[in-house]
Amino acid sequence: MKSNSETYNKFMLWAEDCPKVDVVIITSSRANPYTKTDILSDYDIELYVNDFTYFRNDDNWNEKFGDVIIKWPLNPESTFDKNRITRLVQYKNFERIDFQISMSTNINPIDLDNGYKVLIDKINATSKLQKPSYQNHIIRKPSEKEYIETINSFFWNSTYVAKALKRDEIYFAKYMLDYDIRFHSLQKMIEWFIGFHNEWSLTTNKFGRLFKNYLDDNMWSELEKTYAGARADENWIALENVISFFRNIATLIGEKLGYTYPEHIDQNVCEYNQEIKNLSKL
């Protein structure tokens, strides 16, 4: 796989010559024909090696490919799988290579299903790998139970926002509004809405990165209104807006899937939140 990236090409030359490296596979967006990339897109590299200890103890090898700004984690270590070492490296020229380092005996086809290309195979370890289905991160249709539970969680957590705003606890209010509610409940509902209208055939990437590509201008404008600054009054409006947006999109997707929107939960909680807002003192 040729590239205009000087950093990537230096890495490939090093990998070809390094006796500790057996297999190099590129995965994710740069190996997925259905995904758009740009100069800021990572190179996700699965590096299969015959000397795991070397890569755990030596962290200078990735500095041969360009000027390094920062690495994550701070030192070579396993982050989500004890059989892998993670080295995410950001280079000064905007290029980033995310290395996942494993022993050559640990090639797992499941890790490759979202797209892969074999770049180097010195030991014929990849000849029996199946073609990727690109289905790993496709939005899945929710069950009615998951749909109702997501709505219940959304409204339950909205009460934390109301209480925090009334107490002038803006830091906690923003956490609940802009993290918990937004990324645990609202994100799911938007994904299901987009998934339904695209026949459950796509992904919107992590944390709604591609939402803007699939929501119409009016819906996107309404979503923008759910954001606010640091003032309490702004966040009361944002809370009302996010509830309104969530209600509309949850009702729509419920109708499409044949699920009943729990209006009693919505009404009870909205009345409760308004009563908190109207309290003269605590």
UniProtKB/TrEMBL annotation:
Keywords of this entry: Nucleotidyltransferase, Transferase
GO MF annotation: an example: nucleotidyltransferase activity
SUPFAM superfamilies per UniProt: Nucleotidyltransferase (SSF81301), PAP/OAS1 substrate-binding domain (SSF81631)
UniProt KW Nucleotidyltransferase keyword: yes
Matches recorded under Gene3D superfamilies: Beta Polymerase, domain 2, Nucleotidyltransferases domain 2
Keyword presence, Aminoacyl-tRNA synthetase: no
Protein name per its UniProtKB record: Aminoglycoside 6-adenylyltransferase
